[in-house]
From TrEMBL:
Name of the protein this chain belongs to: Phosphatidylglycerol lysyltransferase domain-containing protein
InterPro entries: Acyl_CoA_acyltransferase, LPG_synthase_C, UCP018688
Domain Phosphatidylglycerol lysyltransferase C-terminal residue range list: 36-296
Domain of life: Bacteria
Length: 302
């Protein structure tokens, strides 16, 4: 089969990005930056087919994993079965999809009994109303607003929010080292994979379409965030958000300011999943999501 997978590199991003905009998709996987940040963790490879679709293959837990094709909705069934054929004939294994969104799976029009489809309850994405997170208006955001006001009062004249550039790479690295050293030793592979992805991003900032910002206090970086934009759904995707947890209101402040300054046109905000971690779940729920975007794994039955 004439499908040539290759590892995702920074130089590929500009060519591949338009394919991600060919259909509505409210998951964090709707933007290419998500794939780039986790490419080492998942050993992700991509193939462009017919200049109409991007197929994705990864290697995790000792086996190959597939993904829903990145293409127009009406082309999904064709390219899904093309990758299925590749898995069956070239790799010699059943096709499986690590994670797929519900509308994407529905677009495949699969025959009954051909796939086991399982909801990944810990991987649902939290999606919010962007204007609510920009303004923090209303009773349900009263505590968040109080945290921000406390931050502004405590650090008046001492803080600076600004977009970050490749020139800030060393400063970001220093912050990440401090942040990581403050975590327990049992953070696990997921966090390690995230840090690897951030370093890969920082090494290629000049080649990648990403929004990055930070908050400095007394000249020292104390919070750092990374996002990208899904123009099809007018949705900001917040991939990374790290802050000094000892500074009251800092997490809420950078969350708010990032949307105000970098994503003023966004209608929705995807703040990704909680990977089953209770502390993350509580934090994400405290911002009052307007929807949870479900994801599913798929396993071929033969």
């Amino acid at each position: 089969m004439d499908i040539n997978f290759k590892p995702l590199e920074a130089e590929d991003m500009a060519r591949l990005e338009p394919y991600f905009q060919l259909r509505s998709n409210l998951t964090c996987d709707s933007v290419i930056l998500e794939s780039f940040l986790w490419k080492e963790y998942y050993q992700a490879e991509f193939a462009v087919v017919d200049e109409k679709a991007v197929l994705v293959k990864s290697f995790l837990h000792g086996g190959h994993q597939g993904a829903l094709p990145i293409c127009r909705k009406e082309d999904m069934a064709y390219y899904f079965h093309l990758e299925e054929q590749y898995f069956n004939e070239v790799l010699g294994q059943d096709f499986n999809v690590l994670m797929g969104d519900e509308p994407g799976i529905e677009a495949l029009n699969l025959a009954a009994g051909t796939y086991d489809i399982t909801e990944l309850t810990d991987m649902a994405d939290y999606v919010y109303d962007a204007e609510s997170l920009r303004t923090l208006a209303g009773k349900k955001y009263h505590k968040k607003k109080n945290h921000v006001n406390a931050f502004l009062k405590e650090y008046e004249g001492r803080y600076e929010y600004r977009a970050l550039t490749p020139a800030d790479k060393g400063t970001i690295w220093q912050f990440l080292n401090r942040w990581e050293n403050g975590k327990s030793d049992d953070v696990g592979q997921h966090l390690e994979g995230e840090i690897v992805g951030i370093h890969e991003l920082l090494n290629n900032l000049d080649k990648i379409n990403a929004k990055i910002a930070g908050v400095f206090i007394d000249g020292q970086l104390e919070a750092f965030t990374v996002g990208s934009y899904n123009p099809t759904d007018r949705m900001a995707v917040i991939h990374i958000e790290k802050a000094n947890a000892d500074i009251r209101g800092l997490y809420t402040f950078i969350n708010q300011q990032f949307l105000v300054h970098e994503f003023a046109d966004a209608v929705l905000v995807n703040r990704e999943d909680d990977v089953g971690m209770e502390a993350l779940r509580k934090a994400k729920q405290s911002y009052h999501p307007i929807m949870m975007v479900r994801k599913f794994s798929m396993q071929q039955k033969r």
